[in-house]
Please model this.
Amino acid sequence: MNLLLLSLGFGAVPAFLSEATGKGLSQLQIGYLDDARIPYAGKPGARAERDRLTVAGYAVVDISAAQQDLEEIATTLDRVDAVYVAGGNTFALLWALRRAGAGDLLAERVRASLPYIGCSAGAVVVGPTIAPVEGLDDPADAPGRVDPRGLELIDTVVLPHADGQLPAYPAELIESVRRTYESRHHVTTLADDQALLVCGEQQVVVASDY
Model:
């Protein structure tokens, strides 16, 4: 498996995609899944991560687990070189992925070598559980009730925004969540200029500037 789990900074993305796919920028198509943004649809900045990809020169193919059927999503995953799962509300994202089985499909493709980039909520959802972020994201913002079990692609819970640079996530809050859950789950905290790089069984925190 090849995963790049971002807190916020985009800097590690180009090298990851080049190494994971063996292709140049002009050859790459990125599947962009933004269901974590469901609670923020139409608000300023809702498409900021997509814009960042296109400005960098990547061809983007939109995916919606909440609106598309499983066959359509599978067809898209078959033709893209990597998938990017955007940040937002982790509970809304997991709800969408569970709606018609897209989460299982996505996990299957990632295990079979599809490179995965997840930012914030997209980084959290691949772990064993999203329960620790209940204090950071409101579960009520999801369209329905969500089982907190994650996609279980990795054995650690990623806690993004640990440096407190975003007003909504003060460092003291992230540290409190880490202390609360570290006895039950392996927890990896990431500052906004860091990412967790997963290559097979290896996991390493790398720099990922803005």
